[in-house]
Write a structure and sequence with these properties.
Aspartate Aminotransferase, domain 2, seven-stranded mixed β-sheet, binds pyridoxal-5'-phosphate, Aspartate Aminotransferase, domain 1, 2 domains, about 45% helix, alpha/beta, three-stranded antiparallel β-sheet, about 400 residues
Length: about 400
Amino acid sequence: MINEKSYALGANRSCIRDLFEYGCQRAAIVGRENVYDYSLGNPSIPSPKEVNETICAVLSDTDSLAVHGYTSAVGDFAMRSAIADDLNERYNAGAAPEDFFIMGGAAPELVAVFRALAVPGSELLAVAPYFPEYKPFAEEAGFLFKVVPPDVPDFQIKLDAVEAMLTEKTQAIILNSPNNPSGVVYTREVLTELAALLERKGKEYGHPIYIVSDEPYRELAYGVEVPFLPLIYPNTIVCYSYSKSLSLPGERIGYVYVPKAAADSRTVYAAVAGAARACGHVCAPSLWQKVIARCAKLRPDLAAYDINRKTLYEGLTAMGYEMAKPDGAFYLFIKAPGGDANAFSEKAKQKDLLLVPGDGFGCPGYFRICYCVSLEMIRKSLPVFKALIEE
Ligand code: PLP
């Protein structure tokens, strides 16, 4: 006998991975340059050169046993301290090293935070469109996963829908801004109104409703503010990752931040540590903790993403495609001409243009483009988009 839920999760691969693998197969047949693969959010700008230089510096100036040995489960003090300094400098956050728990990226952090917060019968809200992995993470943690319908066409947050879905059992709402898949950045205004709503409802229910803020794209914004949520709503738990900001998705490094101002902050922190322990967390990669301790203030150079973003947004809107303004991350979320995103993506696939239908993001009728690709590929793909909309 095996665990049925785990089997189902493992046996049904994600449609994004399927599409990516299909692209690799097609590339072997027709040539990589003839496949327009917009499926996967793998960063296409290299890590800042300081990252590689820092790896060399750490390897040469730090005792090898310390570099490769276990660290404490919560993470090296130096990294936690560097992050606190950075957040305090940028946002006046009032953060301290003991507020951080270092883990291997946003995915395991979300798992640990969900497991720390879920109590039997409790509910988690996610705002559509949302990152598909939230659902298995939340359900395995024991939450009832509830989806707030999308706020079309802007993809901000439908506050009346949130209010209608809140119950006494709501423990948390997961937010992701800049957003995967919409590329939208939630405005300060909408976040402030959401904070007031959660504050009021939390008082009414007699327990806090937490925001879990999933922030792999915090640094990827193009000329707009990404408000720092803990300063708008203290009951915010941040899951941060360097996967996208420093183009390090394969290295697995990030942190959970439980601000002291959050309700039951120390208890939540201990529960995150306990949940991580129960998932087999020992410590985050030690070398990377040492590197981030010295690189916490580095920011990406977004120039290449920005050119891709503008080329696609301007090119596609001129053809008649409709989408929300993509102010952040590296995604566009586009209304499928004809209304059926699966049919549209299938037609695109026949022309070796790989687009991800929005159903898995809780938003049928749209498809996602990851523009962390080469500008040349974008330019070559535009006539294919044109042919498709004209069809
Ligand atoms: N959350 C969102 C919204 C993402 O897009 C991703 C990865 O694409 C993750 C979490 C997981 O990121 P990480 O590589 O830090 O685990």
